[in-house]
Structures are given as C-alpha cells and as structure tokens.
C-alpha cells in the first residue's frame, strides 16, 4: 500500500524508542524520488518535515532523513511551488 493511500497519520519511532505521530500533508516526486511532507503531531503551527520514501528489501516503505542540504532545498522548493500553484488555483 502506497504512503499516499494510507490513513493520513503515521507513527515514527526515534532512535531511543520514542513514538511520534505525524500527519501526512503531501507526498511528492522530485527528480525521480518520492518524498513525504509530514506535520509533527498534526499541529498546524508546527514546521513541516520532509522525509525521502524508499522501499526496503521486503517491499516495505521506509522514511529516511534527508542529509544532503542540496537535496532538501530542491524538495522544499518543489513543495513550495506546488503549494503556491494549488493556492492560486483556489
């Protein structure tokens, strides 16, 4: 099941085993890679976070931090443009 077909929330576990709930606000493709835009705790005032979505060896989707600043900037810019385009369409 693709990330965009799931319930609109995901629970991620950090390195210490703590669970954090995020609301999926969008899934986009940039340069042939898929990225999930998540909002921590569903708090509309919080800053969104971006994860790269990849499949593991079992075909399960896994979210990865984006460690490359250039990659992060490309995705953030693409999302901003998409959000502005959608806002203009309304």
Layout of helices and strands:
Layout: E1 9-13, E2 19-30, E3 33-40, E4 49-55, E5 61-65, H1 69-89
Antiparallel strand pairs: 1-2, 2-3, 3-4, 4-5
Describe what this molecule looks like in 3D.
With 90 residues, the chain is α+β, with helices and mostly antiparallel strands. It has one domain (3-89). The protein contains one helix and five strands.
In short:
The chain is of the alpha+beta class and 90 residues long. The protein is built from one helix and five strands.
Question: What's the total count of β strands?
Answer: 5
Question: How far do the termini sit from each other?
Answer: 30 Å
Largest beta sheet, briefly?
A: 5 strands, antiparallel
> How many domains comprise the coordinates?
1
Count of helical stretches:
1
Structural class of the secondary structure composition?
alpha+beta
Name the strands of the widest sheet in spatial order: 1-2-3-4-5
Q: What letter string, H or E per element, gives the SSE order?
A: EEEEEH
Radius of gyration: 13 Å
Mean of residue pLDDT?
Answer: 85
Tell me the overall shape.
globular
Low-confidence stretches: none
- The percent range for strand residues is 35-45%
**Helix coverage percent:** 10-25%
């Amino acid at each position: 099941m693709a990330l965009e077909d799931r319930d609109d929330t995901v629970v991620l576990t950090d390195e210490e085993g703590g669970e954090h709930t995020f609301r999926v606000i969008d899934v986009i493709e940039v340069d042939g890679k898929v990225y999930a835009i998540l909002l921590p705790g569903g708090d509309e005032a919080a800053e969104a976070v971006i994860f790269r979505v990849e499949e593991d060896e079992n075909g399960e989707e896994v979210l990865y931090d984006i460690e490359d600043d250039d990659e992060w900037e490309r995705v953030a810019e693409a999302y901003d443009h998409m959000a502005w385009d959608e806002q203009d369409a309304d």
